[in-house]
Amino acid sequence: MGFMEKNNTEQWIAIGDIHACPQQLNSLLKKIKGFPNHRLIFLGDYVDYGDDLSGLIELLRKIQMERKDTIFLLGNHDEELLSLYRKFCNEEDKFQKILDYYKVSQNQVEWMDKNLVTYFETENAFFSHAGLDDTKDLQEQTKEDLIHSGYREELDHITPKLVVQGHLVMKEVKSVGNHWFVDTGCGWGGKLSCLVYPEMEVFSV
Prior knowledge:
12 strands; six-stranded mixed beta sheet; 6 helices; Purple Acid Phosphatase, chain A, domain 2; alpha/beta
């Protein structure tokens, strides 16, 4: 489902929802070249809205080979595709229609199924696609909570850590208390953004 890592020299870059727009991701990667030792954490939603999911997956795979500690979180749009994959993978005709609709290969969907995790946690931060359900303790959060939550306020009553998410589209990267929102509408006519830690810098394209 996900995992926690302890790292006393914590450095990361959280990248918002990309929605099948590899060109924007390439442009953002150029902007953050000055942080080669930061772990990349993708906040999910690679699927839908943009026009090149196949190209995006290949770019993500390339990044994974170059930076093996990269984290790829699961988004709700990704889960829709993967649910169809799991349901129809043994029905050739239906499965091919799914691949044709999303314009991806079976190998690419299998990569997603293998590599996307529901959450990632460090000493100082908790990452999921959609944040947290504000009525549950951290250990009680379900997969559905972590990819569908719509909570928009601070979450220090759940955890003192930064909670970093995509999912909810904002005009700019913003925080409400310890709760950070990094989806700025890429694929919807908005921008692709990221948050750099511990520098707390924001970059957008």
